[in-house]
Structures are given as structure tokens and as C-alpha cells.
């Protein structure tokens, strides 16, 4: 089961020029895992993003500001190494030392239908984020009940079926840097 996910992660990392990729069930959860991993407490980012991003900030109690930046392909969360690269997928796109979060949703460059990934170059962060997405589990330990210590985990795991589809699509993908068309999140109100 995990072999196909690992195979897709390796192929995706090679395509993007990153040493590692961690596949998740969606881009929003990839962003959330990165924010949690780096313990972000304050940031700024474009108001022209999908509404799950400011909702994630509320969920994690992160202080944030919204800017009027219009972007193409990706944008950075200010004062972090985290990028929302939901609308970018190109060979060699990886930025050294960064956490770039991809989306595989409909209309995205790698249109699996859903899913996401984190591109990164740090082996320790790769291991931690891999465990975080699987309920804190180290997938090299089987059965999972034999594992004695867990990092805090979340049920943000991808499916092998999505990995297989992603592997097939990677063979035919054409590099894309998409322009985002999102409403201004400064005009919405999020209620708890």
C-alpha cells in the first residue's frame, strides 16, 4: 500500500528538483502540517487565496494579515519558509530550504482530483511530516501497534490510488504556472 505513495513521492520530488516530497490528502492540510511543524505564530499572505487558508490560520490560532498581492503560481507566507504553490508545477521549481505545498485538485497543474504534497530538502523534517500526516505513525514499523512513541499526528494521509494516478499523470504533464482567480478574503468574515 505505502509503496505506491513512496514511488509517487520520489517521482514528484525528482520532477520538481526537491530531495523529498511528502504526499498528503490535500494542499490545505499540507500547509497546516508545515505551519504546525515550524510553529508559526504570525504571518501575512495574499487576500486572494482559497478561503481554507485563512480558516486554517483561525484553527491554529495564528495571527495573520492579508495583503493585496496578486500572484501567479505560488505565494509565500511572510516571515516563513512556507509557500502555497497550489498553482505551480514545473521541473526544477523547488527552492532550497523551503516548504512548498502543492495541490492536485481539479484544475490544478497535476489534476488528480484531490490531494497535495510538500516539497522539502531536510531529512528530519521529511521524517516528521511523513509521520504527522499518518496519525503520527512511522510507516516503516508494522504492525503499527508495535510503535511505542508517536509524534502528534493527523489523519491527512493520501491514498495509494491517488499516488498511482499521480504517477501516470506525471508522465504527461506540461509545466504550468497558473494565475489564481480567487475572491478577496478581506471581504469575508469567519465565524467560530
Brief summary of the model shown:
The protein is of the alpha/beta class. The chain has helices at residues 2-16, 27-37, 52-60, 123-133, 160-170, and strands at residues 20-24, 42-46, 63-67, 75-76, 82-84, 88-89, 99-103, 116-120, 176-177. It has 5 helices and 9 strands, in the order H-E-H-E-H-E-E-E-E-E-E-H-H-E.
Please characterize this protein's 3D structure.
This protein has a single domain, classed as Type I PLP-dependent aspartate aminotransferase-like (Major domain) (Aspartate Aminotransferase, domain 2), CATH 3.40.640.10. With 192 residues, it is an alpha/beta fold. Helices cover 30% and strands 18% of the residues. The strands form three sheets. A five-stranded mixed sheet has the order 1-8-7-5-4, sandwiched between helices. The chain has five helices and nine strands. α1 runs parallel beside α5, α2 runs parallel beside α3 and α2 crosses α4. The model has no long low-confidence stretch (mean pLDDT 95).
Question: Which keywords apply here?
Answer:
single chain; 192 residues; alpha/beta; Aspartate Aminotransferase, domain 2; five-stranded mixed beta sheet; two-stranded parallel sheet; 30% helix; 18% strand; globular
> How many domains is the backbone divided into?
1
Order of helices and strands: HEHEHEEEEEEHHE
Number of helices: 5
- How far apart are the first and last residues' alpha carbons, in Å? 38 Å
Largest sheet: 5 strands, mixed
Rg, nearest Å: 16 Å
- The low-confidence runs, each spanning 5 or more residues with pLDDT under 50, are none
Form type: globular
CATH homologous superfamily placement: Type I PLP-dependent aspartate aminotransferase-like (Major domain)
Level-1 CATH class name: Alpha Beta
Structural class: alpha/beta
CATH architecture: 3-Layer(aba) Sandwich
CATH topology, by name, is: Aspartate Aminotransferase, domain 2
By DSSP, the count of extended strands is 9
Reading side by side through the largest sheet, how are the strands ordered?
1-8-7-5-4
